[in-house]
User: Which sequence fits this backbone?
């Protein structure tokens, strides 16, 4: 099977991550791309097997206003830096996908500069769509032209012009020969000419085995783009929207309906759309979720529903990002991996665990999808012989499924078995589990914690927060040991603070499994310190 059908993608917007200046003065290259070496190790550790990075080539500002398709953006370095990065990724078994911005160029692209200088006499006048020398624009060019999205910064290429097609095809050949890339994400594929994409598919099929073409498509029937003659995949914006709104609205019917609708389009188990929870154009998933505890079920669905899972850089650490005054800058921040890794991080635990499970369980790549149970607040489905269950409510949810066998929870541990042809169990609120048939399968280390709640939306009606694990799982584990007498609270370790909380709870009454679990799952020192001090 093709590598991309089994891939887990990591998405990097390099100009943002590496803190490049907003505008390119085209001075000497600054070799920022070399700073990605630790991120390659991070990707491998988390289980990512493919990198989508872009835009990468010389532009005037955000990268999608390309000025030179065959030169790495000077703010990132030079072409040798890109060759080096692809080589580093390949050494670690990570494929590399670049942005192909073929719908439009920047105003600094050589053909557009020639058009401005020579107007009607430019040999490139047919390279752009609907050039009108009786018109004008805000740049006072003395002519008008079609653009992308109403932005004259991005003049639209005429993809019906043979010279334009050949130039772009030669560019792709250059990228493969010079950088050894493994595929392309086509920017604005929903407005690209279909004949161009069919010819591009023929070109790339001849260049490299399993070269992957994925297109940015927002709305519509995805099968128009995804077929054996055009693209291998497109961005699954429909499922992206359903991921967060089905949790915010407590309505799993939205996700299930989206999956059904796509299957009606012909997008079945073996047609792999590019699934994501956020990217460089939309707000971060942790910002969009009303209940931050839903980070777990959202990402379990990302890694288990049919499709190719992708995580946007930084979101595996649970960072937030909101559009501000129409700007995408906060969605594309500079980040320090050392600082992010300096503390225990619950979302990173979850993503790493899911990456490990996905890598080992081929049923999550090719297994038949079967819906097993669905209400507004719980959802169960099979991928081959793997059972997936998620909940979005604040209360425990019960499942009663027509399944035989014994299953082990890959995320939280615990085991469930059928009785007289029925599999009956309960899952605590705002939780998820991936149930693996117990016999002769990989054993996974259970994750210990779920994200802290930061909204006012997650009490179960008694004022207690749910823990997000299988309700039948015992508290388990050794109790933390108390600190030596006389040690100040401020000097105590996390484990010692946990022990102090438990001691104070025990003084007020019997300790329940839930109470023990909540203390053990709180690994945040400041939170524990305040908790201890709250006792009188």
Assistant:
């Amino acid at each position: 099977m093709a590598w991309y059908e089994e891939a887990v993608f990591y998405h990097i917007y390099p100009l943002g991550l590496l803190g490049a200046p907003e505008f390119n003065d085209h001075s000497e290259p600054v070799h920022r791309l070399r700073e990605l070496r630790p991120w390659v190790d991070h990707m491998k550790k988390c289980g990512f097997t493919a990198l989508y990075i872009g835009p990468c080539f010389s532009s005037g500002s955000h990268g999608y206003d390309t000025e030179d398709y065959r030169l790495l953006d000077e703010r990132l370095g030079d072409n040798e830096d890109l060759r080096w990065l692809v080589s580093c990724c390949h050494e670690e078994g990570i494929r590399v996908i670049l942005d192909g911005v073929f719908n439009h160029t920047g105003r600094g692209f050589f053909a557009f500069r020639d058009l401005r200088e020579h107007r009607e006499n430019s040999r490139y006048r047919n390279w752009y769509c609907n050039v009108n020398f009786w018109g004008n624009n805000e740049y006072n060019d003395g002519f008008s032209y079609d653009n992308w999205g109403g932005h004259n910064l991005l003049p639209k290429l005429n993809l019906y012009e043979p010279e334009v097609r050949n130039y772009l095809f030669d560019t792709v050949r250059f990228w493969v020969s010079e950088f050894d890339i493994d595929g392309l994400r086509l920017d604005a594929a929903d407005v690209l000419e279909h004949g161009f994409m069919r010819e591009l598919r023929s070109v790339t099929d001849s260049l490299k085995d399993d070269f992957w073409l994925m297109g940015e498509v927002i709305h519509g029937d995805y099968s128009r783009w995804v077929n054996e003659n055009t693209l291998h995949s497109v961005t699954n914006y429909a499922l992206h929207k359903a991921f967060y709104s089905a949790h915010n609205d407590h309505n799993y019917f939205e996700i299930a309906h989206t999956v059904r609708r796509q299957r009606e389009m012909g997008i079945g188990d073996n047609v792999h759309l590019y699934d994501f929870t956020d990217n460089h154009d939309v707000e971060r998933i942790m910002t969009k979720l009303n209940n931050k505890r839903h980070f777990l079920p959202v990402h379990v669905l990302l890694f288990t529903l049919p499709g190719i899972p992708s995580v946007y850089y930084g979101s595996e650490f649970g960072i937030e990002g909101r559009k501000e005054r129409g700007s995408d800058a906060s969605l594309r921040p500079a980040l320090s991996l050392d600082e992010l890794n300096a503390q225990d991080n619950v979302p990173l635990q979850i993503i790493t665990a899911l990456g490990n499970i996905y890598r080992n369980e081929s049923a999550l790549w090719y297994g038949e999808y079967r819906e097993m149970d669905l209400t507004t607040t719980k959802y169960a489905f099979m991928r081959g012989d793997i059972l997936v269950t998620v909940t979005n409510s604040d209360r425990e949810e019960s499942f009663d499924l027509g399944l035989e066998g014994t299953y082990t929870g890959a995320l939280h541990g615990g085991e469930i078995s059928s009785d007289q042809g029925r599999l009956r169990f309960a899952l605590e609120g705002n939780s998820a589990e991936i149930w693996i048939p117990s016999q002769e399968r990989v054993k996974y280390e259970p994750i210990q914690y779920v994200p802290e709640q930061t909204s006012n939306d997650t009490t179960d009606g008694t004022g207690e927060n749910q823990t997000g694990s299988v309700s039948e799982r015992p508290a388990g584990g050794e109790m933390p040991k108390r600190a030596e007498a006389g040690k100040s609270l401020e000097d105590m370790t996390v484990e010692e603070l946990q022990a102090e909380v438990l001691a104070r709870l025990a003084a007020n009454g019997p300790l329940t499994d839930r109470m023990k679990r909540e203390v053990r799952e709180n690994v945040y020192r400041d939170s524990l310190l305040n908790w201890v001090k709250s006792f009188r």
